[in-house]
Amino acid sequence: MNPLEVRTAAELAADGPLFADETTPLAQAVQDSVLARQSALRGQPMSRPTHTRVLVVANQKGGVGKTTSTVNVAAALTQLGQRVLVVDLDPQGNASTALNIEHRRGVPSTYELIVDGVSLTEVTTSCPDVEGLDVVPATIDLAGAEIELVSVVARETRLLRALQAHDRIGPAESAGEERYDYVLIDCPPSLGLLTLNALVAGAEMLIPIQAEYYALEGLGQLLETVEMVRKHLNPRLVVSTIMVTMFDARTRLAAGVAEEVREHFGDRVLKTTIPRSVRVSEAPSYAQTVMTYDPGSPGALSYLEAAREIVTKGAPT
Ligand code: ADP
Ligand code: MG
Questions:
Q1: Pairing with 192, which of 6, 24, 121, 177 sits 20 to 30 Å away (CA)?
Q2: Strand intervals (E) in 60-111
Q3: Using one digit for the tens of pLDDT, what is the confidence trace for 15-61?
Q4: Contact by Cβ (8 Å): 169, 179
Q5: Which residues of 202-231 are buried (b: 16+ CB within 10 A; e: fewer)?
Q6: How far apart are the CA of 284 and the centre of ligand 2, in A?
Q7: How far apart (Å, rounded) are the C-alpha atoms in residues 194 and 173?
């Protein structure tokens, strides 16, 4: 064909993915190679832990990527052959939204689980779009739990009890083949009784840190709380994983923050940082994780890599 000839959209489309959307050919080529790599990765289920790992995703700061990381790591883990349960512990219910789980008032939720003592089985639903992923949604009722729990017996251990009583949580010997490999708890942006319940119920903490100004501010308070919990309520708890989120490779600030985080936390920081990406932030408005919304995007690939790191590292000993 004469290169100067004007081509129709249909002809361009026939050229394949290089012209499939508005991205530049180079960006598309990168994305294609990423996709190829990802499907290769996806084809390989990783070995399951011998005991359910309960990860608490917490940071009392809002907007650092707790919910985004919870839902995307959860979905990524299922792509690696793991069985996952997400517990939405934030009254906002953003994790429930992103996982396409109904969470209007009245739906059995974490509120009933923690406040009323309803069993985990009764409040768990399957994520319709991600195989191997179950969810306990949060409704707005949970907002009241923070206060209602104050007068409840054993108020800090309600979630722990609920998890312990479940037949699919625990070691392979008792929880069997159908056991959950990972339970991810998405905490609200505070250090109240809900977060405390999560810290008592889990053995590992995953702290997302936004690569921004003041990233480390407030972390001291979080780590003090962790120490307090270790001492009095849950000696198993360790900060196993730090994840740098919303990383903007173009700014020196982001690189500086990431470096500071690494100096402070060493190899507990995942090698994979999560880039700031529009695809990641728009996925929830389609009730999806970025893993299903745009599996070839850099955000999805990063979450998949991060999940692989978490699996490879294994539970802390
Ligand atoms: P938290 O749960 O800690 O409050 P969220 O996960 O809700 O934080 O994230 C806060 C905001 O930042 C949300 O609007 C989310 O879509 C956006 N966000 C999170 N991670 C990314 C990312 N990697 N790139 C772009 N936006 C992001
Ligand atoms: Mg959140």
A1: 121
A2: 84-88
A3: 444 334 445 667 767 766 666 665 555 658 999 999 999 999 999 99
A4: yes
A5: bbbbbbbbbbbeebeeebeebeebbeebee
A6: 12
A7: 30
Closest residue to atom 1 of ligand 1, CA basis: 63
Of all protein residues, whose CA lies closest to atom 24 belonging to ligand 1? 276
Pairing of strands 84-88, 125-126: unpaired
- CA distances (Å), origin 99, targets 67, 86, 121, 126: 11, 9, 18, 9
Atom of ligand 1 lying closest to residue 61 CA? 3
Give the closest residue to 99 by CA, choosing from 141, 135, 69, 140: 135
Distance (angstroms) between ligand 2 centre and the Cα of 172 equals 31
Question: Kind of pairing, strands 125-126 and 238-245?
Answer: unpaired
- For 316, half-sphere exposure in the C-beta direction (CA atoms, 13 angstrom radius) is 16
Rounded distance between C-alpha atoms, residue 105 and residue 252, angstroms? 45
Pocket test for ligand 1, best of 191, 281, 290, 297 (most atoms within 8 A of CB): 281
Fold designation for 53-313: Rossmann fold (3.40.50)
Global pTM? 0.89
> In the numeric block, which tokens belong to residue 126?
């399957």
pLDDT digits (tens, 9 = 90+) for 101-128: 999 999 999 999 999 999 999 999 999 9
Contacts of 6 (CB under 8 A, 6+ apart): none
